[in-house]
Amino acid sequence: MLRTKAALGLAACAATAAGLLTATPATAARLPCHLAGSGDTASAHCYSGSSYTWRLVVDCDDVSNPKWPVRVKTLYGAWHTGDGSDSISCGSPLRATGRLEARL
């Protein structure tokens, strides 16, 4: 009885976790989206018309010493399904580097 409950609990946890996992960077790279960046701002424009669920993630780096940039923070945009645009600013003097995350 205890083993059955434990097995059911583990199965429920696994199912819940599966819905929260994001796609690999390779999968996100195949999304029909355009990433752009300029200084402290990064943006994404997705135009697929499909049901992909994606969000913009921006790493904000202090590049005052170009030889040793320092990651200051990572900002996460809202989740979007299908077509959409998003833009995130780190604030000066940080450099923004954007990437996409996709839900499975």
TrEMBL record:
Write down the superkingdom of origin: Bacteria
**Keywords for this protein:** Signal
Tell me where the signal peptide lies.
Answer: 1-28
What name does the UniProt record give this protein? Secreted protein
Upper lineage = Bacteria, Bacillati, Actinomycetota, Actinomycetes, Kitasatosporales
